[in-house]
Design goal:
With 552 residues, the protein is of the alpha/beta class. The protein has 19 helices and 19 strands. A hairpin with a 5-residue loop joins strand 5 (114-120) and strand 6. The longest helix has 42 residues, at 204-245.
Length: 552
């Protein structure tokens, strides 16, 4: 009444093959195709089927009713051993443990007198990686199994006659087994097992068991090596990222910043990082995250100036299909992705009023909905914001919410410009020089005295970002062992150097610098954004604000 299942699949009519497991109600029937079992199969306390139900007469000839208990017992035992092996292989983190698990499974599954695992070394030779039973350095079967890439067995103990495991239809297969351990490109090694002449021959099921062990072991070894390579690459990338994102500087101004980071980081307070473009605000945010309670969670930076008003809300809060034109699938927002981590909102002064209201509600602990959605989403995130603009002035202009301003400015971290950090510029330039020289593989080895003087004299309106770009230029274009002021694009001090800049407001200096960069890049706004380190939306706002639209 509940249907007939063959190998766990519901069927109406099918052609049975040896090894098929039939389930009818509470009864299990194994279709063996043969009417005998090995005489040396262990008896023991094996479970017996609860009932037998008749099939068609033409199928009954293939059923070994008297041996069903032993067949099911063997299948159950082998399945249990293989399942246990698969679980253990996933738990062990090194090659030696994997080999021990595989060897133990072989001993339990096929009861050999001797069993050995052989792996191909870097020199192409076989080395014994695991052994059960008396020591024996012979590995003829293992070598031939690797060479032929087939499972092999010995039909007669003396003299040995090798046959392919794919041939032969009888249940006994031989006194020796050699099975290759597969790998992604070639055989990784082989399994070799033997039985003494008085023990009887291995059975077909035991050969198949050894093949399954070999495949499981090969897959586990491949996965382990792949994981180790990923971990090594990850460690290398982490070291590179740490070297590139390390806050450097021994000036009093920078020491004050580092001390404040150390006090703010372990708390869960919202922080607002203030500073000119290129001073390293994102490095400060990442440093806060690394020592925070959420350091194990994700760090998600979002440049608010890089998105339009509608796209920024979708980027932060996500959207459902059909929320707007082009929204053909669900998008998970960055706040949701950063659950139990940190969201860094860079250039938050460019955020629209509607988006500011949603961010304020989130900071106050309220749930949010994706655009076009009804589901309330709660997240546990720490918010760190940054801007190079005067938010208090924007509040006075009605362009930034006052309540959000005070909610963000629980703790403020002003970052000093490079011109106020003394010889930090020299330290940073030396570090950038070493980094880019290793990256390029050539270039100047050190800063010249003239270059050091020029770095000290330059105002660095673009701060650390401008210095980094100048050093990269020097590494690529420099020809000598030392970096010259010309390589950095700076004037040589005392020789035709430009006169000291006139006293002017920061607003005027910013306008002049944007005009200078746009002129140098021929009006290419994408390149100007890259040099200035700002988003395209910010650049267009600056152009409009300073009335430079006609000149670009």
């Amino acid at each position: 009444m509940n249907g007939t299942f063959v190998n766990s699949q519901t069927v109406q009519q099918t052609m049975l093959e040896p090894g098929d497991l039939i389930r009818i109600g509470d009864s299990l029937i194994l279709f063996t195709g043969e009417d005998r079992e090995s005489a040396d199969e262990p008896a023991g306390d094996q479970p017996r089927p609860t009932a037998m139900m008749g099939l068609k007469k033409d199928a009954q000839r293939g059923l070994a009713e008297h041996s069903l208990s032993g067949s099911l017992a063997r299948v159950t035992r082998d399945s249990a051993v293989l399942c246990r092996m698969a679980n253990l292989l996933q738990q062990h983190p090194n090659t030696e443990s994997l080999l021990c698990v595989a060897l133990d499974s072989l001993v339990q599954g096929i009861a050999p007198d001797t069993a050995s695992l052989w792996l191909v070394g870097t020199d192409g030779r076989l080395r014994c990686a695991g052994r059960f039973g008396p020591a024996d350095d012979e590995h003829l079967l293992a070598s031939l199994a690797i060479e032929k890439n087939k499972a092999l067995f010995v039909e007669q103990p003396n003299p040995p006659s090798l046959s392919s495991g794919a041939s032969g239809t009888s249940s006994p297969v031989g006194s020796g087994i050699g099975v290759p351990i597969p790998g992604a490109a070639c055989c990784r090694g082989a399994i070799e097992c033997h039985r003494a002449p008085g023990r009887g021959l291995f059975q077909r099921a035991q050969l198949d068991f050894a093949v399954v062990v070999a495949y499981q072991l090969g897959s586990s070894l491949e996965n382990l090596e792949h994981r180790e390579r990923l971990e090594q690459a990850n460690d290398q990338l982490r070291r590179q990222l740490a070297s590139q994102t390390k806050l450097m500087g021994s000036s009093p101004a920078m020491k004050s910043v580092l001390e404040r980071i150390a006090r703010v980081g372990p708390t869960s307070s919202t922080a607002l990082i203030l500073g000119e473009s290129g001073t390293g605000k994102e490095l400060v945010a990442r440093a806060i995250h690394e020592i925070s309670r959420n350091s194990a969670g994700p760090y998600v930076p979002v440049n608010c100036a890089a998105f339009s008003e509608s796209l920024l809300e979708s980027e932060l809060f996500g959207h459902e299909p059909g929320a707007f034109t082009g929204a053909d699938r669900r998008h998970i927002g960055q706040f949701e992705r950063a659950h139990r981590g940190t969201v860094f909102l860079d250039e938050i002064g460019e955020m629209s009023s509607s988006c500011q209201a949603k961010v304020l509600r989130l900071l106050e602990g309220h749930p949010f909905q994706r655009l076009g959605g009804q589901e309330s989403i709660h997240v546990d995130v720490r918010v760190i914001a940054a801007t190079h603009r005067d938010l208090f002035e924007l509040v006075g202009q009605g362009r930034f919410r006052e309540d959000l301003y005070y909610r963000l400015r629980v703790i403020d971290l002003p970052i000093p410009p490079l011109r106020e950090r003394g010889d930090d510029a020299i330290e940073l330039a030396a570090s950038f020089l070493d980094h880019f020289r290793r990256q390029v593989g050539c270039g100047p080895r050190r800063l010249s005295a003239e270059a050091i003087a020029a770095i000290r004299q330059h105002s660095w309106a673009g701060n650390v970002r401008e210095l980094k770009n100048a050093v990269e230029r020097a590494v690529v274009l420099g020809h000598s062992e030392e970096v010259s002021p010309q390589d950095l694009g700076l004037a040589t001090p005392g020789r035709g150097s430009a006169p000291a800049p006139e006293m002017t407001s920061l607003r005027e200096a910013e306008r002049r610098h944007i005009e200078y960069v746009l002129g140098r890049v021929g009006g290419n706004k994408a390149e100007a954004c890259r040099v200035l380190g700002i988003g395209r939306g910010t650049l267009y706002k600056k152009i409009e604000e300073y009335g430079m639209a006609d000149s670009t």
